[in-house]
Amino acid sequence: MPSERDLPDEQLVARARRGDREAFAVLVARYQRPLTGRALASTRKLEDADDAVQETFFRAWQGLPRFREDARFGPWLFRILDNHLADRGRRRGREVPGAEQFAEVLADPAPGADERLVADELATAVRGALDRLPPGRQREVFQLRYEEGLPVNEIAQRLGLHSGTVKVHLFRGARELRRLLGGAVEGTR
Description:
The structure is a single chain. The chain is mostly helical. The chain has two domains: about 1-105, RNA polymerase sigma factor, region 2, helix turn helix motif (Rna Polymerase Sigma Factor, Chain: A, Orthogonal Bundle), CATH 1.10.1740.10; about 110-189, Orthogonal Bundle (Arc Repressor Mutant, subunit A), CATH 1.10.10. It is built from ten helices and no strands. The chain is globular, with a radius of gyration of 19 Å.
C-alpha cells in the first residue's frame, strides 16, 4: 500500500478539502522548495521568500473549498504565489521611498543575519547558474521541475519522454549546476 507521500496531488487535495491536515502537509512538503525557488527569484531575500510561501499555503488552505476538481494543484499554487508577489510589489510601490531602509537602520540586527546574507548570495549564484545551463531539453526539464514544481511523471507526459529520461536530465542538470556553482558552494561552507 503506497504511503501518503506517494499519493497523487488529486487524492491529497480531495482529502485536504475534507479537512485532512496531514494530506495538506504532504502537499506542503511536496511544493515548498519549488515555491521558495520561485519566490526567491522575485524577492531576492530568503526571509521574504519564506513569508510569501507561507502566505501562499495559508491562502491555498483557505481556498481549497473553491478549488476546481478538474484543475491541477501545482499550477494553482504557483498562481496564488505569483498573485501574492504581484500584490506585494504593488504595495511596496505605494510605500514611502527609503522608509524600509530607515527602519532597518533603527532596528537591532536580527540573529542569523550572516546566514541570511550567505543564503541570499547563494540564491543569486544559483539563479545565475540556472541561466547558464545550455538551452535545450535538460534546461527545460529543470525549469519544469524546479520553477513550475511539476512532478517527474507530469514532465515526462508533457514533453513526451519516459520518466527515466526526465530523471537523467535532472541528474545531469544538477551535476552541471554543481560544476557551475563550484566556487559559490565552496564559499558557503
